[in-house]
Amino acid sequence: MSGQQNSLEQPYRKQSFWLDTIPGSLAPRAALEDDIEVDIAIVGAGYTGLWTAWYLQQHHPGLNIVILEAEIAGFGASGRNGGWCASYITGIEHWFDDPETRAGAVRLQRQMFDAVKEVGHVTQQESIDCHFDQSGALEVAVLPVHLKRLREELEYMHAQGFTDTDYRWLSPDETRGMINIDKVGGGLLMSHCAAIHPARLARGLAERVEKQQVRLYEKTPVLEITGRQLRTPHGKVTAQTIVLATEGYTNTLPDQQRRLVPVHSMMVVTEPLNTEQLKAIGSPDRYTFGTPDHIVTYGQLTNDNRIAFGCRGSYCYGSRVHDFDPLEAEFGLVRKTLLRFFPDLKDIRFTHAWGGPMGVSRSLRPSINHDPVKGLAWAGGYFGNGVGAANLAGRTLADLVLGRDTQRVDTPWVNPPDGHDKWEPEPVRWLGINTRRQFMQLADKAEYRGSFFAPFISKTLDTLFP
Ligand SMILES: Cc1cc2nc3c(=O)[nH]c(=O)nc-3n(C[C@H](O)[C@H](O)[C@H](O)COP(=O)(O)OP(=O)(O)OC[C@H]3O[C@@H](n4cnc5c(N)ncnc54)[C@H](O)[C@@H]3O)c2cc1C
Known about the structure:
Elements: H1 3-13, H2 17-20, E1 36-43, H3 47-59, E2 65-68, E3 84-86, H4 92-97, H5 102-125, E4 137-141, H6 144-159, E5 167-170, H7 172-178, E6 186-190, E7 193-195, H8 198-211, E8 215-217, E9 224-226, E10 229-231, E11 236-244, E12 260-270, H9 275-281, E13 288-290, E14 298-301, E15 307-314, H10 330-341, E16 350-361, E17 367-371, E18 376-380, H11 387-402, H12 428-449, H13 454-464
Parallel strand pairs: 1-2, 1-11, 2-8, 4-13, 11-18
Antiparallel strand pairs: 3-7, 4-6, 5-6, 9-10, 10-11, 12-15, 12-16, 13-14, 14-15, 17-18
The structure holds flavin-adenine dinucleotide.
Flavin-adenine dinucleotide binds at residues 43-49, 68-71, 75-78, 80-84, 86, 221-222, 245-249, 252-253, 265, 267, 298, 310, 355-358, 380, 382, 384-388, 390.
């Protein structure tokens, strides 16, 4: 690789282990340099934007579509996540619990089960080598309170009509045989989940949509949106429909402030495990795994036998997107949490540490919105569960934009009444989000210490932040 290419792609490689291990070049594609007119302009080349373009082209191959990306395809959360391609939609319980939306929520959940398969299907058909492996997700109990939480979750999902094929209880021995997390007391297997290499999916999709004649401009930040016109540094785009797919970065767009705010998550990855270490963690299969703590923990065994693991996170005042430094002290706590799972790995070397923003809406649920009069559509707010969800969101956005009357558009996350709700202004927003986070950390600490106060802290958390 030439020195110039190298310097162009270095800033991107260091964003995550996943981007660092992408074969081929990450040097940006050409930026937009002219004024153009198109049918559809998509802002953001993460999974949401790319899947939307993909399905639009599948249904309507002649459409004139552009994607405008501020950096490079996969620069955002899509190139940095934990690689759980899961079927969970954050906050779907709200729709299960409301008799008016219950049937739609069950439909939506089944569509999410299919979305995981669909990602596997398209990537196989298109030869996108994203290391897709649908072994399932393991939620592992290491404390009595975890067992209770997982039992309740299982009963809840079975009460919605799902079965052992979807969510299955595992005995301690069975769980240990699948993943040998320290002090394992049982677990829940969620079969609709695949481990993937996230950046390979994003970069592979970008190449495939380009082959379908979608024009992808990189280093092209959208600075302003006026009606159906988008302004970028060197060219204007006039579009029949604009699709916003900027998730955790949405707050940086004028007129979009306080709709989705960035909450960050942090990850580390180990060197490849040797045979002995692999035996110690007990997993030849690539289950994704975590514990049901208040602060989410998520891990996967990568295709080359490393553990990629994440937890913790932060919210910055004013909804600023944080640029992570791998030497930040808090990464030490992420590493420590992983070693609590697998004490036998105490001498393992960690090779990368990174973080990224996840979009969070005021309702804490994702939504898909379309205003045909304004010619504006957007999706996001997946709150850390966007890998599978962005596929379904992209398919649904394509249906909405093309006016296709499908089962997908008849689900509760499409144009929900609270989809446009805004977050409170600062400093209330910062105080609210960080107080919640502090309580969650406190609740986890108390539970691991077996503190008498643990149930009270948990209850207070549920009462203050239902
Ligand atoms: C550390 C981490 C771990 C995660 N782990 C998981 C997981 O294991 N499973 C899961 O389901 N989800 C996970 N998530 C969440 C998941 O990655 C996201 O929900 C998903 O990738 C969102 O995709 P997206 O396309 O909507 O947004 P993004 O991938 O963030 O893409 C948005 C794009 O918009 C671009 N952009 C921003 N502003 C502009 C502008 N003005 N003009 C042009 N372009 C712009 C950005 O550069 C970016 O490329 C995780 C997230 C993080 C950060």
